[in-house]
Amino acid sequence: MLKNNIVRIVLVIIVLIIASITISNLFKLNNYKNATESISDDDKEKYKNHFVMIYDSMDYKNWEHIYESANAYAMEHDAYIELLSESLPTDYTKEEMLELAIYADVDGIIIEGDSSERIKTLIYEAENKGIPVVTVFTDSMGSGRSSFVGISNYDVGYMLANEAIQNLKTSSTKNVMVLMDNSNEYSGQLMMYQAMLESFMGRNIKASEVTVENNSEFGMDESIRNILVNMEKEPDIMICLSEELTESVYQELVEHNKAGSIDVMGLSSAESSYKAVNKGRIKSLVSVDKEMMGINCAKALVEYVYTGYVSEYFMVDVTLVTKENVLEYLGNEEE
User: Fold this and answer.
1) I need a surface site. Which of 103, 185, 291, 304 has the fewest CB within 10 A?
2) Confidence check: pLDDT of 38 > 60
3) Strand order in the sheet with 313-315
4) pTM for the full model?
5) Distance in angstroms (rounded) separating the CA atoms of residues 282 and 249
6) How far is the C-alpha of 240 from the C-alpha of 252, rounded, in Å?
7) Interhelix angle for 94-103 vs 117-128, to 10°?
8) What is the enclosing helix (H) or strand (E) of 124?
9) Are 252 and 223 in contact (CB under 8 A)?
10) How far apart are CA 158 and CA 101, in angstroms?
């Protein structure tokens, strides 16, 4: 009798859990459908395929040009790309947005990959459902994704290290502080750092790595502020291994009247960073071709949808920007 009661209780709990999950998914899907009502019926009839782009909500600035070029390419090939984080009425995590896209049975997904098991599992689920997934910036190895669009992290590290070497031609030992952040791109930054250490080997250059917190909108700025205030000795060069780090470090150096006293190198395709290079406040930048990155994301999905096949990797070019060539990126408008 007791055993039967226990079995009934367990069954009731299981039913309640299943019901709760179903209601939650229906609620999310309803929100998604409400959000997509902003897409006119004309657009739905005009384009054959509906793709979505997913990234962390705080990172729109870094994705704006990627989305614009991707959507332009998609529209030329009978598809449109919805920027999912901008369509939803409330904030959702990247995992939740990926769940929504799968549940809504979209025709393709572009997502900032990472190494989390949840993202890998969801990508695998999407692919099994026949939805091609393209990871960008950071790959999700072992997820079964259709294609990855990114840069060669090793080449970027080598490029930054070589630029530092050229600027530190001296017999005395020089200190280089390399800043990384704990974002989804951390594994790629580690590869850049490894390439730099290999390049510095046998030279009078002492490199140290500092990981900056990037868990909130103001977390990175505060962490960098603490680094600048508490450092015992200023490094000769600070090398930033993400666009957010480069911009944040530059702004904090300006606020602390240290711009120019420490040479800054980093990754950035932002106009504000180009202007800083032109003024001599940032020594050099590695710039990613975000327009081509967006085109390749859309191209990968279009190719897969129409042929069933696609290249596993799309590598995007990077360029070293210095004071000598920065006007090419500023439209020849010297600030």
Assistant:
1) 103
2) no
3) 79-83, 49-54, 108-112, 133-136, 147-150, 313-315
4) 0.79
5) 10
6) 13
7) 10
8) helix 117-128
9) no
10) 38
Q: Which of 291, 236, 202, 220 is nearest to 58 (CA)?
A: 220
pLDDT at residue 40 in the model: 43
**So what's the pLDDT on residue 270?**
85
Chain segment 69-120, per-residue pLDDT in tens: 999 999 999 999 998 877 776 778 889 889 989 988 999 999 998 888 999 9
Flag whether pLDDT at 4 surpasses 60. no
Give the CA distances from residue 80 to residues 68, 97, 214, in Å, rounded to whole numbers and listed in that order. 11, 18, 32
In Å, how far are 163, 176, 204, 258, 330 from 173, measured between CA atoms?
A: 16, 10, 5, 22, 35
Query: Which domains, from first to last, does the chain contain?
Result: 2-145 (3.40.50.2300), 153-289+320-328 (3.40.50.2300)
- Residue 251 pLDDT > 80: yes
Which residues sit opposite 263 in a β-bridge?
Answer: 237
Query: Which tokens sit at 330?
Result: 């500023």
E strands present in 41-119: 49-54, 79-83, 108-112
The pair of three-digit structure tokens given for residue 288, joined into one six-digit string: 């990613």
